């Protein structure tokens, strides 16, 4: 599905190039099928007699720095320069840097940084969402932006299902009941609902939305979806999904509404008071994309007034929410701290996919996942 023509072409070009120029095969990826990725990272790009390209990164280790285990892989392909090293030695380094590897939205790409790197060719974002990058500004410097849509799709779809199930079966409340010292048993009227045979409305049917649909099919859910572009008929049939051209129809009919769109000016506050009021009073809103896709004040009000039944959110704005935020105090709300891609496998594949993208740009090959500003 992911392997479009340009992608296959990139593989072929790369294969020829790699055979000619690389010294040994380095098999890092263990599950190629999972990512729909290319074979780029299967090659040690130790080009005979050539220096590895210099790539700027935020930092190694710490709370938000690149994982030590990924650094080893990155170092096989790049000469890594941390922001600290760059600031210490700008004069010498600024002309050498060809790419920036962005992980956890770091380093921050501002005009000053872009101006200081005359030979920058590509910003390789590790992750699918690029709303933290000013695409117009970056591309005005002649710099390309890439992301990693394939690597994140399984783990993010899993989180969507986990939140939907947890909310439906009141898992968090149940856990609190079980661990509370004064609870002996759950009350007989303490009931959840089943997702089986319920209607799931997926808003945003990209690679993550589609994987959610695949999973929901296994739960015998009725699946509706809304997307800018309708999926091919055979893809719809494969997961048993029905297209809703009008988002309102989906909102009115769904028991669970899952948001899986990119955050853009068009999707900012996509779900506001009007949309929440279209939903069933028994419905649950699940957000696994970006917090700002939902008007959060309208959501609080809807939850307080029983306009909808519950919400399950992996994303909010800001992140984290202030400790006194109303959403954190509601029993019918589950919040996780933006952990859609927080798995060992996803993070590893994100690094691989980002490396593939960066190498493709630096070697003038078709780029597997370029983000083009609209
Ligand atoms: O939020 C996760 C991502 O953008 O990949």
Automatic annotation (TrEMBL):
InterPro entries xrefs: D-isomer_2-hydroxyacid_DH, D-isomer_2_OHA_DH_cat_dom, D-isomer_DH_CS1, D-isomer_DH_NAD-bd, NAD(P)-bd_dom_sf
GO cellular-component term (any): cytosol
Molecular function per GO: glyoxylate reductase (NADPH) activity; hydroxypyruvate reductase [NAD(P)H] activity; NAD binding
Superkingdom: Eukaryota
Key words, A-Z: Oxidoreductase
Residues annotated as domain D-isomer specific 2-hydroxyacid dehydrogenase catalytic: 67-371
Domain annotation D-isomer specific 2-hydroxyacid dehydrogenase NAD-binding: ranges: 161-340
Family: Belongs to the D-isomer specific 2-hydroxyacid dehydrogenase family.
Protein name: Glyoxylate reductase/hydroxypyruvate reductase
Source species: Python bivittatus
Gene: LOC103050057
